[in-house]
Specification:
InterPro entries: GPCR_Rhodpsn (IPR000276), GPCR_Rhodpsn_7TM (IPR017452), Olfact_rcpt (IPR000725), Olfactory_Receptors (IPR050427). Its main location: membrane. Belongs to the G-protein coupled receptor 1 family. It is a multi-pass membrane protein. The protein has about 300 residues and is mainly α. The protein has a single domain, classed as Rhopdopsin 7-helix transmembrane proteins, CATH 1.20.1070. It is built from eleven helices and three strands. Strands 2-1-3 form a three-stranded mixed sheet.
């Protein structure tokens, strides 16, 4: 790869140019990232320890929380440290590694959200078959399939990109590396590669989003003849998931289902889904789910009591 590339080191302009604003961003985003790690980590720990959270829904939730930490950690730690650096550099190999893991964890999360929607569909619309259809081996296979889908997607992205010769310019107006700015550095016309990237990233998001919307429409139609209390319970179990889906898919579709651009708002939208959304997800699930809150109180109570003893 080095023999056909004139570019070995890449420079990012960052989120903002002003050094004072960047220091303020450091003070703001460091606690946000720490909250992301702690909040999602608490969910993984609580589901893993608590006997009351042994249903498939909470198993998938713990997998989603683990994915949120991994997804955020591919971008945010370097982004935060770069806020204090005057020159923000990364090697070409480091750039490709960041792109691979960013897309791997991102698509795996998309597929996990789709699996969680299927879980709610079976639980609400086919409750008599829920135990058989969502057994522990089936749940493990669905999660493994999500990881496999993420790997295949990310491998396609990297194989398309790694074959290109890069000439520069090596300065990109962003705070992390993604495929569109990297394609702009190529020495050749990348129309075909751009179409592949668009199809591989954008269409996965759109099709998964349509499947998710369809599943919840079916759930709502299925509940129309049930009692008001039954509809309330069904919607309550789905509300957190629907909120997370909107927060995750909205920015992703906005960025990947249109031609690449240099709009400043692209960076702000990217901040939302790489930094803010992973922090909001545990808050949404904890605040809207009584069982998770009770299990966390019990877990915290046990830790406090064991510490006193």
């Amino acid at each position: 790869m080095a023999s056909k590339n004139n570019v070995t080191e890449l420079i990012l302009t960052g989120l903002f140019q002003d050094q004072g604003v960047q220091r303020v961003c450091f003070v703001v985003f460091l606690p946000v990232y720490l909250a992301t790690v702690v909040g999602n980590g608490l969910i993984v720990l609580t589901v893993g320890i608590s006997d009351s959270l042994n249903s498939p829904m909470y198993f998938f939730l713990s997998c989603l929380s683990l994915m949120e930490v991994s997804y955020s950690s591919t971008v945010v730690p370097k982004f935060i440290t770069d806020l204090l650096a005057k020159i923000k550099t990364i090697t070409l190999e480091g750039c490709l590694a960041q792109i691979f893991f960013f897309h791997f964890f991102g698509v795996t999360e998309i597929l996990l959200l789709t699996v969680m929607a299927y879980d709610r569909y079976v639980a609400i619309c086919k409750p008599l078959y829920y135990t058989a259809n969502m057994s522990r081996p089936v749940c493990h296979l669905l999660v493994a399939g999500s990881w496999l889908g993420g790997i295949i997607h990310s491998m396609v992205q990297i194989l398309v990109t790694v074959q290109l010769p890069f000439c520069g310019p090596n300065v990109i107006d962003h705070y992390f590396w993604d495929l569109h700015p990297l394609l702009k550095m190529a020495c050749i016309n990348t129309f075909v590669e751009g179409v592949i990237v668009l199809a591989n990233s954008g269409l996965i998001s759109v099709f998964s989003f349509l499947i998710l919307v369809s599943s919840y429409i079916v759930i709502l139609v299925n509940q129309r003849n049930h009692s008001a209390e039954g509809r309330r319970k069904a919607l309550s179990t789905c509300a957190s998931h629907i909120t997370v889906v909107i927060l995750f898919f909205g920015p992703a579709i906005f960025l990947y289902m249109r031609p690449s651009s240099t709009f400043t708002e692209d960076k702000l939208v990217a901040v939302f889904y790489t930094v803010i959304t992973p922090m909001l997800n545990p808050i949404i699930y904890i605040l809207r789910n009584a069982e998770v809150k009770i299990a966390m109180r019990r877990l915290w109570g046990k830790k406090v009591n064991s510490g006193v003893e």
